Automatic annotation (TrEMBL):
PANTHER family: CYSTEINE DESULFURASE, CYSTEINE DESULFURYLASE FAMILY MEMBER. The active site is at 327 (cysteine persulfide intermediate). This is Cysteine desulfurase IscS. It is an enzyme of class 2 (transferase). GO terms for biological process: [2Fe-2S] cluster assembly; amino acid metabolic process. Keywords: 2Fe-2S, Cytoplasm, Iron, Iron-sulfur, Metal-binding, Pyridoxal phosphate, Transferase. Coiled coil: none annotated. Homodimer. Forms a heterotetramer with IscU, interacts with other sulfur acceptors. The modification N6-(pyridoxal phosphate)lysine is found at residue 204. It comes from Wansuia hejianensis. It is found in: Cytoplasm. Belongs to the class-V pyridoxal-phosphate-dependent aminotransferase family. NifS/IscS subfamily. InterPro entries: Aminotrans_V_dom, Aminotrans_V_PyrdxlP_BS, Cys_deSase_IscS, Cys_deSase_NifS_bac/arc, Cysteine_dSase, PyrdxlP-dep_Trfase, PyrdxlP-dep_Trfase_major, PyrdxlP-dep_Trfase_small.
């Protein structure tokens, strides 16, 4: 088998060896239920407390403001559904964006269809940035919540979160951010940014899968999400995922401690890759903001190319990447994010997301760009649309 080049770190990351090491004892010896009173149970409880403190420290939050969940999707669901229930006496209006993760978008659809919420989906500009004037204009006396993702999982664009937080605070509206892609990649001081709720997920930061947290600022009225025992200050019942929480804490500390150096290296490789693709592959377009983007995100559209074919051929070279389009029940719908930044369907279909890690090398990037060049050429040679373009019968839709 060819050596694998993993460039799909926005989908999930490798669990770091020190994370696995830290987790193991909580499966084998320290398996006590944290709510019990004997010694090994106490050790589990201490481990949860330590992890909560570490994570709170990374955000500049208080430990009692961190509520563990079973991942990013649960945290997003909780933030929106429970805030809506708690504040519906004040109003029923929620403002979000067209480029959120489906954990937000489908929850909004549910609240709209089943619970009587009114949702405004903000547009983004061609770089994927939310328009702040549109946000201000959308606010009404009924607005109870603004939910805008910190950084986009497909195109990597980082939103003006501090400005959005200020607007929300000025109007006395709750502000939630899905920071699943941003936590551990960029500093997130929740107080300075006026963030009231924040979602994060372990497996996106070299931690385990199936663990996440929702940060809930003290004073925010929020309903319990899972009813049962008294875990998580009675707001999210269920015996804690102790190994997961332990691993998450180690992953969060590791991400915070290595952030500067790691992201500087990733940014260099990212920009090198972007520059090489732009220079060497004709008729392509970088998606997302050129500089206000995640350190590890590269997203390109290649005209006259089918993204799925490109992915399959990259896989045959041992390269793991992702396309901009999500394959839903057999039909190929182009990504809602790429459509929201104004790409025509044809262009959105020819998109490729490559997300780097701290293990990615320049050799990996060079090999991948060489293969992309080759494959794009091959696919275009089979495309009747490309033939027409070369013959001068049609124009490029890019630039
Ligand atoms: C991955 C992801 C989620 C979902 O997190 P899970 O832990 O996989 O449920 C939510 N939002 C964004 C932006 C993501 O990238």
């Amino acid at each position: 088998m060819k050596p694998m080049i993993y460039l799909d770190n926005a989908a999930t990351t490798k669990t770091a060896p020190e994370v696995v090491d830290a987790m193991l004892p909580y499966f084998s010896e320290l398996y006590g239920n944290p709510s019990s009173i004997y010694t090994i149970a106490g050790k589990s409880k201490e481990a949860i407390t330590a992890s909560r403190e570490t994570i709170a420290g990374v955000l500049g939050a208080k430990p009692e403001e961190i509520y563990f969940t079973a991942g990013g999707s649960e945290a997003d669901n909780w933030a929106l559904k429970a805030a809506f229930e708690a504040y519906k006496g004040k109003g029923n209006h929620i403002i979000t964006t067209k480029i959120e993760h489906h954990a937000i978008l489908h929850t909004c659809e549910y609240l709209e269809k089943e619970r009587g919420a009114r949702i405004t989906y903000l547009d983004v500009d061609e770089d994927g940035v939310v328009k702040l004037d549109q946000l201000e204009n959308a606010i009404t006396p009924e607005t109870i919540l603004i939910s805008v993702m910190f950084a986009n999982n497909e195109i990597g664009t980082i939103q003006p979160i501090k400005e959005i937080g200020m607007i929300a605070r000025e109007h006395g509206i709750l502000f939630h951010t899905d920071a699943v892609q941003a936590f551990g990649q960029v500093p997130i001081p929740v107080d300075e940014y006026d963030i009231d709720m924040l979602s994060s997920s372990g497996h996106k930061i070299n931690g385990p899968k199936g663990i996440g947290f929702l940060y809930i600022r003290k004073g925010v009225k929020i309903r319990s999400f899972v009813h049962g025992g008294a875990q998580e200050r009675k707001r999210r019942a269920g015996t804690e995922n102790v190994p997961g929480i332990v691993g998450y804490g180690v992953a969060a500390r590791r991400a915070a401690e290595t952030m500067r150096e790691r992201t500087q290296k990733e940014i260099q490789l990212r920009d090198y890759m972007i520059q090489r693709i732009n220079a060497e592959v004709p008729n392509c377009k970088l998606n997302g903001h050129p500089s206000r983007r995640l350190p590890n995100n590269v997203n390109f559209s290649f005209e006259f190319v089918e993204g799925e074919s490109l992915l399959i051929m990259l896989d045959m070279e041992g390269i793991c990447a992702s396309s901009g389009s999500a394959c839903t029940s057999g039909s190929l719908d182009p990504s809602h994010v790429l459509l929201a930044i104004g790409l025509p369907h044809e262009i959105a279909h020819g998109s490729l997301r490559l997300t780097l890690s701290d293990e990615t090398t320049k050799e990996d990037i060079d090999f991948t760009v060489d293969k992309i060049k080759e494959i794009v050429k091959k696919l275009r040679a089979m495309s009747p649309l490309y033939e027409d373009f070369v013959a001068g019968k049609t124009k490029s839709m890019i630039q």
